[in-house]
Write a structure and sequence with these properties.
Elements (H helix, E strand, L loop, with lengths): L8 H4 L4 E7 L11 H5 L3 E7 L6 H13 L3 E4 L8 H21 L7 E7 L5 H9 L4 E4 L10 E4 L3 E4 L3 E2 L9 H7 L10 H15 L1 H8 L11 H9 L10 H13 L12
Parallel strand pairs: 1-2, 1-4, 2-3, 4-7, 4-8
Antiparallel strand pairs: 5-6, 6-7
């Protein structure tokens, strides 16, 4: 079991629904493969964040795939609020089902309790902040939880843990680790920025070379160059002493452009 998850195990015992967060650009690799075992059948909604940076057609296809697998999945842009209403409708339906089950047993309704989990930097905090909003009421610790994060009331029927859970790393098989780095899910210190940038550039050369022309002024003749970073660095004026290219600065410029959608919307895992 990932060490980062241990501190959240006590909360897992008292939550009803887990919101598993993954990045829409890497809807498989940005998930933690061991989560099924940890959850042991607990209700879950898969939330694909940053859908504004992914290919919308591919996102729709992935949502259908997850649906066929029996999983509830929603695509959201937590920064702008896109998809949040759909997520809230799913949660309201779950709260309604719980209310009926408790009533059938002669028990009083209590709020449906939620927890947000995911690998590092897939947008957990942005989702949590979007759900909580300014008007949410903090309700304090619950029985069995003596200290730690508080629960926040969302309306009359929902409560959410105010701190997201980190559950280890994503799937790094093959070139997955570089793509996880490209979207920011791997620490910068763990990868060579030039390696990550070159993967992005080679990908764009294949699927959207016009984006390189538009963003960096690369000509058709230069497209076949063995070192596009060199060309981009000189165009941007990222120079060191002796007029050498600052490879690190150039690479980070490319990576940040990709992460922010300046080079287009892409889904890096296709069906």
């Amino acid at each position: 079991m990932p060490s980062g998850f241990k501190s959240f195990l006590p909360y897992l015992k008292v939550v009803d629904v887990v919101l598993e967060v993954a990045d829409a650009r890497l809807p498989v690799s940005s998930r933690f493969s061991g989560l099924n075992k940890i959850l042991q059948g607990k209700a879950r909604i898969l939330v694909l964040t940053r859908c504004d940076l992914a290919d919308p057609a591919a996102t729709a296809e992935w949502l259908q795939i997850f649906k066929k697998e029996g999983m509830t999945a929603v695509a959201v842009d937590a920064r702008r609020g896109e998809g949040i209403a759909t997520l809230q409708r799913h949660l309201a339906a779950m709260a309604g089902e719980k209310k009926l089950k408790l009533a059938a047993r002669g028990l009083k309704m209590r709020p449906l309790r939620l927890m947000v989990v995911g690998i590092p930097n897939v947008g957990k905090s942005s989702l949590l902040n979007r759900l909580v909003g300014r008007g949410a009421a903090r309700t304090g610790d619950r029985p069995g939880i003596t200290r730690g994060p508080q629960w926040v009331r969302l309306g009359n029927e929902l409560e959410i843990l105010d701190t997201p859970g980190v559950i280890g790393k994503g799937r790094e098989e093959g070139g997955g680790i570089l793509w996880l780095g490209a979207i920011g899910c791997i620490a910068e210190s763990s990868l060579m920025a030039t390696d990550t940038a070159n993967v992005i550039l080679q990908f764009l050369l294949t699927v959207a070379p016009e984006r390189l022309q538009e963003r960096y002024g690369i000509t058709e003749e230069e497209m076949g160059s063995a070192d596009l970073l060199e060309i981009i660095g000189r165009r941007r004026g990222f120079l060191l002493a002796g007029k050498k290219i600052d490879q690190e600065r150039t690479a980070m410029a490319v990576i940040n452009d990709f992460r922010e959608g300046q080079l287009g919307r892409y889904t890096l895992e296709r069906l």
